[in-house]
Structure formats: structure tokens, C-alpha cells
Amino acid sequence: MSTQALILVLISACLHAGWNLIGKRTAQTVRFYAWAMAAGGLMFSPLLFWVWPEVLRLPLSFWLLLLASGLCQTLYLTGLAKAYRHGNLNLVYPLARALPVLIVPVAVLMVYGQSELEQQDLLALALIFLGSLALPLTRWRDWHWRDYLTPAIGWALLAACATAGYSLFDSIALQIMKQQGMSAFEAGSSFAVLQAGACLVWMLPLIHFVLGESLRALPDRGWTLLAGFFIIGTYLLVLVSMTLVSEVSYIVALRQISIPLGVLIGLIWLKEPISAPRLQGLALMLTGLVLVALGK
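-> C-alpha cells emitted (296 positions)
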């Protein structure tokens, strides 16, 4: 992985942990994320207008991928909002962030029929998986399979699967943009804005017809604007970094450095308790992340 891609992903991880703190602390509704996506999309919209002629020339396959990505983003944010209603940040956030690392390589292998992951990477993924199994536990001796059958974990799993989905769709869409002559920054920045719009296409009907939430109830304006800036800015950096690597699994894995940041935020700002198994699970995850970072 190039140094440029590494720096972009690390900055993105800090921003990501920040907007999840906002989501957990100030609002736990899908409506909040809809307003945040709209605000963030508007703030970054000049980046789209800059390359609008090139965007209009993109093929139909790109737009279909964009819609699929928007659906996955909607499911991700819905799962996150619901999970934060039922669980602590230091449980939901690591699960939603780590599990895509396991899903994406399998999906890449199924789609492309090959993978660039090596033995060290497979060991890293195994450590991350084992660490995630320890997160819901309070004490090892009280382990029971029912510990994993909670609303918080269920919604976090939805968020994780959706993350894997949009990561794959976005990677393919970005390659199409690059093939059309767009630079890494042009592709990543414009796609981040387009994805916000695609997300709202799915999210607004979901809020109105399925969840029954009122869009007229505007969340706290300051937190909504800040969350919108962080959400779009975070993924803009990730999308640009995706164009700088050959294996998207590395980006998805390295983004998980935000996991310990999220846990620290939960402990310090939200005063959340944390168990010994959860700390041990986080240690396994961090070990896996280090192996991924050193892999290339």
C-alpha cells in the first residue's frame, strides 16, 4: 500500500470515529443521517460541478453501481442508527467496522475468481474475526451463544454487510471513472457527492413509508452540519485511496484503525463500561490490523 493511500485512510479513520460519536450521543434516528447526508452533499457539491461534463459521459453501468451503492449506504446507516439505540459505542462500532474485513475478501474472490491476499493477510483476518467474537462478552466463564442474539448485534451485522456491499460497488464504479480519464481525486470526490444523492433516493422513502419518521423534525443544526461534513469528507478520502491500490480489501482492513479510537471515545466521553473480554478482543483486532498494514 502506498504512503499516500495510508495517510488518507488514517485521516479518514479519525473523522469516521468522530461522526459516530455524534450519531451515538446526539441522535439515533435514520432521519438524522438523512439530513446529515443532504448537508454534506451540498457542502461538497462544488467538487461535482467541477467535473460535471465528465460525469455526464459515464456509462449506464456506472449509474447502476451508484444506485446499488446508495442502497447499501442506506442499509448501513439504518443499521447503525438502530444498533446505537440498543448498544454502547464500544460494542456496536467495532463490530460494524471489523466484520466487513472478513466479508469483502470472500466477495472479491467470488466476483473476480482471484485475490491478492497472502498468508499473513489471512492470519490477520482470522485475528480480527476472533476479536469480534469476544466483544459482546462480559466474562469468559459466562459465555453463551445467546450473547450474540441481541438487537444491537443484529443491527451491527446489517451495517457490516452493507459496508462490504458498498465497498465492492464503489471500487468497481471508481475503476469505471478512471477508465473514462478521470484522476483519482476527481473520481473519488465526485463519487462521494453522487453517492450522497443516491443514498437519499433510497433513504427518504424508507423514512417516510417504512419507519414512519417525520422529516420535518430537523435535528440539531450544528451537529447535523458537522456530521454531514465528517461523513462525506471521510468517505471522500477513502474513495480516493481506493484508486491508489490494487486490492480494495487492504483499504477496508486498514480503515479499522478507527476501532480503538471509537472505543476510547466511548470510554472517555460517553463513560461506557468495558469488560476484560472486550479489551482482549480489541487487542486481537489491533494485531490483525498491524499485520494488514505491514502486508504491502
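Residues 61 and 173 are 8 Å apart (CA to CA).
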